[in-house]
Amino acid sequence: EAFGVGDIYILAAAGACAGWDIALGGFVFSVGIALAAYIVSLTLKRTTMIAFGPPLALGFLMALWLNRPAVEMGRELCTEFSEVWASRPALLAGLLIGSLVVALVAARLARRIFAPAEPEGE
């Protein structure tokens, strides 16, 4: 399970046309779009495969439209993060590690719930 060849071409084309910052932002946006599409497809029980090309293209469009607001928000978040890190590094490190553990447990539970059972003996 990895990128398909078409996904890599879309990513390369976006980077060549709009720059690496738009390509990176579009990739980040497309992950959220693909996750939403996957959750909808799970409720409809269509398939467990994710076609990543359409969310990738939508993510690049969002990155083009939201480039300046995203940069400003990123700068603000970076400033706030560095202030919290300077004042209470142990608290921030604990929150980051705790959220990682919660995400891993949630992923395991989701896999057990939604993944089809494998036949025994194979």
The multimeric state of the shown protein is single chain
What is the strand content?
Answer: under 5%
Approximate shape: flat
- As a percent range, the share of helical residues equals over 70%
Radius of gyration: 18 Å
Sketch the major β-sheet: none
Mean pLDDT: 84
Number of strands: 0
Structure description:
The longest helix is centred in the last third of the chain and has 26 residues, at 89-114. The chain has 122 residues and is mainly alpha-helical. It contains 5 helices and no strands. It is flat, with a radius of gyration of 18 Å. It has helices at 5-18, 20-44, 53-65, 67-87, 89-114. Helix 1 (5-18) runs antiparallel to helix 2 (20-44) and helix 4 (67-87) packs across helix 5.
Topology of this protein?
Layout: H1 5-18, H2 20-44, H3 53-65, H4 67-87, H5 89-114
Helix pairs in contact: 1-2, 1-3, 2-3, 4-5
Quickly describe the structure:
With 122 residues, the protein is mostly helical.
Short descriptors:
single chain, 122 residues, mainly alpha, 0% strand
